[in-house]
Amino acid sequence: MSQKIPCELIQDLLPSYADGLTSEVSGREIEEHLLTCRECRCRYEALHIPSEEGKKETQSSNRKEIDYLKKVRNKNRAKIAAGIIGTIMILALAVFFKLFVTGSPSSGYEPEISVDQGQVQIKGTLTDSAAAFVKCGLVSEGEKKRLVVYTALPSFWNKNGDFSTGYSLEEIGKGLLINGNEVMPDGSVISSKAAELFEEKNPYIGDMPANGRIAQTLGISDDLGGFQNSLQTTEEPYGWTLEFKDPVTGSGEELFRSRMEAYSCVLLALIDNAGEISWTYQAETEDGVHERNGSVTASIASQRLGKDIKSFSGSRKQVQELLDELGIR
Hints:
Elements: H1 7-18, H2 24-36, H3 38-102, E1 104-106, E2 109-116, E3 119-126, E4 132-141, E5 144-152, E6 162-168, E7 176-178, E8 181-183, E9 189-190, H4 192-199, H5 208-218, H6 220-224, E10 227-232, E11 239-244, E12 248-249, H7 253-270, E13 276-285, E14 288-297, H8 298-305, H9 316-326
Parallel strand pairs: 5-7, 11-13, 12-13
Antiparallel strand pairs: 1-5, 2-3, 3-6, 4-5, 7-8, 8-9, 10-11, 13-14
């Protein structure tokens, strides 16, 4: 049959045959023809070889493209890894500076304040041994100024737990707030204790929780020991008796009575209808333990201070004046 098919017809079918598009019967006829016809075989090879080379070129191109994509992927991975590492390093550096260099505002310090010739001198001691002083400065708070103290973690280059600074009265405006204390424009200093006591004024002695808050702010139990309470509110003068539990030694009895008299004056000033503050305690002497008692009335307190004891509750400044007169810090 191959001899009946002209070469021109076979040659027309070669492109389809090379691409595998001919039928099975046509394919067999073309193959038989190619076995006997050199010219057609040469034409077929001319078509087939470039196709193989094209496949190889395509494969090579694909490999190059894949290699390129792999390189791009690896570069992107490297960039992402570098970005993550860089971000971690920046955050770590920021945390390091925050913890050890710049620090953060802190109220964990005890200030010692003095005013002399229009200059406010402030000395402070940090209460946290795991902190070091970094810096301090003033910030505005309304018409007043506030001292802000920055502390950081101790380091080999900074282990300082004390600081000192100073400002003129002109710099502080309407007042300088220092960790609960306040320096007034006239140079007077109101302690945090005086400010707290003023806020805890109690109009009625029968309000025992309110009485207790005043006593706690004064630090009576810390100074003189624990006590129980007894109130006398049936008739005037209304009274409050502090019954101390811990015995007082003979050598400390005078100091105990002196401190209790001072505390009683403050209690009488800040409890509006209190007329008498009394106390009982046990005194240990050489000849045994003896029951002791003492009391301060509003009239006795007024005589001691030179004016009505109740007048000292009018303002924070007056409460501070009372504490200064009594030597209570």
